[in-house]
Write a structure and sequence with these properties.
The chain has 128 residues and is of the alpha/beta class. It has five helices and six strands; from the N terminus they run ββαβαβαααββ. It has a single domain (5-125), classed as Rossmann fold (3-Layer(aba) Sandwich), CATH 3.40.50. Helices cover 30% and strands 31% of the residues.
Length: 128
């Protein structure tokens, strides 16, 4: 049984975890809350639109991942030691600002957003 509150992840650990491939079999507007846990970078850019289509009106999406802008700044100024490992495995790059703009263009409300140690967190509510 799939719950209305799920976490999309590459490593299923809990009963409400689903993988990106399982998400494709879920009907649109099914979920009330989706947590996207560090998987956006490993999927193509259109994956975010697919995830958003699975959320009900007034549902919330929370996304965490690596902020590429913050990583680039750290590479330039701090010789960031994890940059090669991260960059070589990634299909898509995001910044928290890019995601904020994406959701605002869709008419969604941004509840919060931050970047801490190159990891972004953003939460948005679907209004339309």
């Amino acid at each position: 049984m799939i719950e209305n509150n799920i976490r999309i992840t590459t490593n299923k650990e809990n009963h409400n975890d689903i993988t990106t491939s399982e998400l494709m079999n879920i009907p649109d507007s099914f979920f009330t809350q989706i947590y996207v846990d560090n998987v956006l970078g490993f999927e193509e850019k259109d994956f975010l639109n697919i995830v958003c289509s699975k959320l009900r009106i007034n549902g919330k999406i929370r996304i965490s991942g690596i902020d590429i802008l913050d990583v680039c700044v750290k590479i330039l100024h701090e010789n960031y030691p994890y940059s090669n490992e991260y960059l070589s495995k990634t299909k898509s790059f995001y910044t928290v600002t890019e995601l904020k703009n994406f959701f605002e263009e869709k008419g969604w409300k941004i509840e919060f957003m931050n970047v801490n140690n190159s990891v972004f967190n953003i939460e948005a509510t679907r209004k339309v």
